[in-house]
Amino acid sequence: MSVNAVCLIGLVAVRPTWDQESSLASVLVVTAGGDRAFRERHRVVVEPSMAGAVLALGVGQQIFVTGTVQRDHRNRVIVVARDLWPIGDVPSETTAGVSVGTHASPREHHRAGHWRRVSIGGPRERLVWVRTTTVGHDR
């Protein structure tokens, strides 16, 4: 006997998408390990009945997903959601257009590694990892 069950708690990595051809909505969910050092990405696919709720999710919003693991038509591992609930609200955007400085580092310091969203709004929108670095040491 085998059990195929998945429970995920993670963050919405990019805006959810709707595939006209298959009539399925999908969202990329990023989860963190216990030590918060490693992250995994999970493609979560939902049926049309839940598509409206999924398409309303915002980037950075925390969600809870239950479902099963399957393979799609391109043999990629996906999570087919049975239930999907938003846990928190969509993070507020920072105030656009407010200038707070010159972006010049006043002194040498370490900048922590972090995730950055690139190609926002395009077909190649994704998260990339920016490594830890030392900034402000060129002076």
Q: Could you explain the architecture of this structure?
A:
The structure is a single chain. This protein has one helix spanning 51-55; strands at 6-12, 17-19, 24-32, 39-46, 62-71, 77-86, 109-111, 114-118, 126-130, 133-135. The protein has 2 domains: 1-90, Nucleic acid-binding proteins (OB fold (Dihydrolipoamide Acetyltransferase, E2P), Beta Barrel), CATH 2.40.50; 107-139, no CATH class. Helices cover 4% and strands 45% of the residues. A hairpin with a 6-residue loop joins strand 3 (24-32) and strand 4. The protein has 1 helix and 10 strands, in the order E-E-E-E-H-E-E-E-E-E-E. It is mainly beta and 139 residues long. The strands form 3 sheets. The protein has a 5-stranded mixed β-barrel with strand order 1-3-4-6-5. The protein is elongated. The model is unreliable at 94-100 (pLDDT under 50).
Please write out the topology.
Blueprint: E1 6-12, E2 17-19, E3 24-32, E4 39-46, H1 51-55, E5 62-71, E6 77-86, E7 109-111, E8 114-118, E9 126-130, E10 133-135
Parallel strand pairs: 4-6
Antiparallel strand pairs: 1-3, 1-5, 2-3, 3-4, 5-6, 7-10, 8-9
Short description:
This protein has 139 residues and is mainly beta. It folds into 2 domains: 1-90, Nucleic acid-binding proteins (OB fold (Dihydrolipoamide Acetyltransferase, E2P)), CATH 2.40.50; 107-139, no CATH class. The protein has one helix at 51-55; strands spanning 6-12, 17-19, 24-32, 39-46, 62-71, 77-86, 109-111, 114-118, 126-130, 133-135.
